[in-house]
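Aggregate trends can hide what the representation actually does to any particular protein. For completeness, the protein is quoted in full, as a sequence line and a line of structure tokens.
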Amino acid sequence: MCFNSTVKPRTLVGATFLKFLAENDSAFDLLYCITFKLMDHEWLTMRASYMDFNAVMKCTRRQLERELLSEDIMRLEDLPSYTLLTR
């Protein structure tokens, strides 16, 4: 995947993701899949209805940000949520 190297991310999470993207051409696809599996997991755990969509999204975002900012994560495959892809 090609991206403009002059883009400056506005957040630390964005900078972390750009690092993963520079190292792995499939980083976007992989994080996309992880995100939707995590969102589904949160949805079922919270027993959410359509009225809870925003709360589920907020929870999913917070969880992903926490995982991406963890110091022991060197690649997307190290994310704890990565294991959701095998379920």
